[in-house]
Amino acid sequence: MTLEDALGPLNEVERVHAPQHLFVAGDLSLLRRKPKVAIVGSRRATQDGVRRAARLARILVEHGAVVVSGLARGIDTAVHRATMDAGGRTIGVIGTSLDQVYPRENEALQREIAAKHALLSQFPPDHPTRPANFPMRNRTMALLCDASVIVEAAGTSGSLSQGWEALRLGRTLFLMASIVERTDLSWPKTMIEYGAEVLRDPVDLLEALPLGEDLPVVSF
Amino acid sequence: MAKTFPSFPSDLRFGSYFAYPGARMAEQATDPASARKCRNLILAVKQDAVSPAHAPLTLIQVWIRQLAAVVSDTVLASLLDRSATLIPMPRSSPLLRRSVWPALRLADAMVEHGLGGEVLPCLERLNAVPKAALSRPGERPTALDHYESLAITLVPGMPQKAILVDDVVTRGAMFGGAFAKLTEVLGSTEIIGAFAFARTVQTFDRAVDPCVGRIACSWSGDHSSRTP
């Protein structure tokens, strides 16, 4: 399907990095559900980061959000698991084609998401898995979601591609306070200068989200 | 030489088209379904979303077309002036390349439908200010904060009269800061008012709710208020 089949029509800014096609396994209706929030972060996550990401996922589930992440090691894995454990719905947006798994250790998780939730890729079957796929996948995730939250990320993480794309699209981007406070990272301050918000209280994120409507209405 | 202090408006006319309820207030409204729909619409407008029923037209284009069709029957007719130049307000942070600028799209749509004469995107954000909608009351940026974060690109033939345009007005601090900056640099341009697609509301009665009122800033730019 095209992205417009999945999400509805796109504006000219959204089309800049939008993939031409999406390959989806599982519950297609999740793509049109609102709100959708991405929680992403480092593959080499700290225990604190994993705990924070999982807690935020549970809060979003309590408030009816679909929780989106990238099925990578670390933060992404914690987010999907916490969402499913809390009885919520999740979308995995992967940087390989649907018939491949990366990392291999997430094979069972990927299969479960494809069967009971939604698994999505912009890459056709047998598409070679290259490092460049992953930041592309992150930009697609930014487009899919009403808001993105970066929990932890190094200066080369694909999460940064997602952050910049969310800002470009005018979507809400939150950075966990714990990364903003780190003096060894310069990118959080730069992103804040371009409109990222610091997540000090999950209520701030909830306040920024649409309230469970499928599509914006055009009559009252 | 004495430093000139910016002239914040003590009485700036403003108009708005929609009401914009906060998330918690929408749930507590007498008609929460309408309040939720309205809130979601304004959030989509802030992203310049395409109208699902009218693609490729955006929601802004659809709703401004509807406003233009009925404007003479609304209080907004006393504010909007088809000979005025529309100046879109910058976003709360500097613009990234090829990014969304809803106030510009709003101004373009207004001109297209005869609610303004031309668009002059002459204001630029140099430094980010906190988003009013996501700030706690005591932490919202003031008119002075906005004034200090803005710059103007001068072009030949600056307008005689102008209306400031934005997607959402909260207390009017953004309009106040822009008014002061424009007045300082474009002494001969008369800013006759400000228009926002939506205004934040304390109680939600209806979504489409054209209104005209006033924005007042303190002389120092520290405080702004909007009526209604």
Looking at the structure, what is the overall shape of chain A? globular
Kindly estimate the percentage of residues of chain B that lie in beta strands according to DSSP.
Answer: 25-35%
Shape-level CATH architecture of chain A: 3-Layer(aba) Sandwich
What is the radius of gyration of chain B?
17 Å
Shape descriptor of chain B reads: globular
CATH names the topology of chain A as: Rossmann fold
Instruction: Give the helices and strands of chain A as they follow along the chain.
Output: HHEEHEHEHEHEHEHHEH
Helical run tally of chain A? 10
Structural class of chain A: alpha/beta
- Please give the alpha-carbon distance between the first and last residues of chain A: 31 Å
- Multimeric status of the protein: heterodimer
Strand content of chain A: 15-25%
Kindly provide the name of the CATH class of chain A.
Alpha Beta
Largest β sheet strand count, sense and barrel closure of chain A: 8 strands, mixed
Helix content range of chain B? 25-40%
Number of distinct beta strands of chain A: 8
Total count of strands of chain B: 9
Strand order of the largest sheet of chain B: 3-2-6-7-1-8-9
C-alpha termini separation of chain B: 40 Å
What's the structural domain tally of chain A?
A: 1
Task: Tell me what you see in this structure.
The complex is a heterodimer of chains A (220) and B (228). Chain A contains ten helices and eight strands. By secondary structure, chain A is α/β, with parallel strands linked by helices. Chain A has a single domain, classed as Rossmann fold (3-Layer(aba) Sandwich). An eight-stranded mixed β-sheet of chain A has the order 1-5-4-3-2-6-7-8, sandwiched between helices. In chain A, helix 3 links the parallel strand 2 and strand 3. In chain A, helix 3 packs parallel to helix 4. Chain B has 228 residues and is an alpha/beta fold. Chain B has one domain: 3-Layer(aba) Sandwich (Rossmann fold). In chain B, strands 3-2-6-7-1-8-9 form a seven-stranded mixed β-sheet, with helices on both faces. Chain B has a two-stranded antiparallel ribbon with strand order 4-5. Chains A and B meet through helix 7 and helix 10 of A and helix 1, helix 2 and helix 3 of B.
